[in-house]
Model the fold of this input.
Amino acid sequence: MTEKIVLKYGGTSVGSGERLVHVAKVVKNIKETTTPIVVLSAMSGTKKSEGTTSRLLEAVQEILKPQSQRYLHIVDMIENSHLEAAIFALGNSENKQILEDLENDIRGECQKLRSFMAAAEIIDEISPKSKDVIVSMGEKLSARLFTAVLNDQGVAAKYINLDKLITKQFDASELDQSFYDYLSLRLAEEIVPYMNTHVCVVTGFFGPCPGSLLNTVGRGYTDLTAALIAVGIQAAELQIWKEVDGIFTADPRKVPRAKKLRYISPEEAAELTYYGSEVIHPFTMEQVIRACIPIRIKNTFNPDGSGTLIIPEGHPMTPTTSSASLSNAFSRHPTAVTIKDHVIVLNVHSNRRSVSHGFLAQTFLILDQFNIVVDLISTSEVHVSMAIGKIESEEKLQKAIENIKKFATVIIINLGRFTA
Ligand code: ASP
Ligand code: MG
Done:
């Protein structure tokens, strides 16, 4: 048996009939030498906001708006774009049955979705579970479509839908590593029976998930699904296919001299992800690194490129990699720079009526109360300066600042729209 490799394709990589055909060719090629397992995100254009998942989330909002039935229009749009991609990819096929079955399935799934949404509209309620059912449609359609395209290219492919992945009860407020271990096990159970005879095409969505997948994991969950599959089936590598050659020393669109990194450590990749480079979902890294599986970032537009390899410590070197070059790559030089937009800087200066250790504790207690996450921090005994990225609401930040002002002076930099 050849090495097992998990291949994850993002929405843009499979965003049209043309892209689907291209990726199917890439997978067919990879299959010559390895056992690939494909995990797909929902189809998307270059703008995430116009992708299938965003449209489904918009539909969720519309269901609860009185008098609006715009959600039906959104489902029509989704149905049409998938049918269009199906016809582009399979319209000239000699095997007419593949397209016919696919079209029936797309129409059938969309019809089920309309009925489900209409029911939610009547009871005027969308539970986290219902939201999962609605959002899961994006990955179901892309995976079903891609399976047909592979079949059409003569590759035996198996569509794997993860609707029934979770069969145990979990408390949404207490999800820990044991939940992810359970998922890896279950994913392996779903995939292993077909893996050696078929290319498994798995939906990036799994669920319904305790507390809803979007609340528990958030957008970009397909990376995590792919990682958990890699762990479950003990894959040799997890490949995340994107539209860039790998991870760069800086954003190549802004810095023309930016260089692609051949290797990067998981810690560095995680830092880049947290600080603005949308490389990979942050939960992904931890899971594969625990299992000592390398991640490779590859480019769908340049399948022969070597990409960037994220190698966990202690992983045996690939034969082509000399340990000298790797230790060079991990030497203590800055690896890359990244930019994060919309950052607010808070400079908090103690008014010295409180003792200094109490000052820091109080400041962070208040930030915690208002769910404010600090990205970077620099402190002295009476001064703390911090960069804050995403905030839940301006109101919360405003309240936190008011409270801090009771014992310190607060100066806000980069405030943009925000005033306090
Ligand atoms: N399609 C989903 C999203 O846009 C999941 C993913 O892309 O991983 O968040
Ligand atoms: Mg993504």
